[in-house]
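Incident review: delayed structure delivery

Summary: a single-chain prediction request sat in the queue longer than the usual turnaround. Root cause was a stuck worker, restarted by the on-call engineer. No data loss occurred. The affected request and its eventual output are reproduced below so the record is complete for anyone auditing the incident later.

Affected input:
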Amino acid sequence: MCRRLIKRIASMPAGVAIVAAINAGVADIQLLVPRALDFVKPAVEHIDNLNTQIANNRFAGSVNRRLYNAPDVTPNETVLGPLAAIIRAGLESFAPSSPLLKSAALKRVANNSPMTGGMIGRMVNTAVKSEAAAEIFLPAIRTLPGA
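Output delivered after worker restart:
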């Protein structure tokens, strides 16, 4: 029972699945290819803003927010589309069995930027098959423990 309570307190409120999904994807991108986020600065700023709103009020954006007089949190899915598409393209190339790839919210928002997802996906697939990929990922690999 206690474990369940801890998990519930530390998790995102029901109703903001896209924020949780993008947070997970951004964490991976920041570790591996932080410069990729330079291309989607408005989306990164927007997700940071959403995280701040939720951090300031535990029930902000929740489907039950009215019960707690909490504010609504409205992700702008058009702004987040390119970032979601980059996350999905990366997952499809590097982690096709990831549970995050099954996120309906991430898929829905990524569909707002199908060309971005397609182009990034093709670029990632091309890079994976070339020696140049090592140069792209080498700085991140060097910072990993034990490297």
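Verification: The chain has seven helices and no strands.
Action items: add queue-age alerting; document worker restart procedure.
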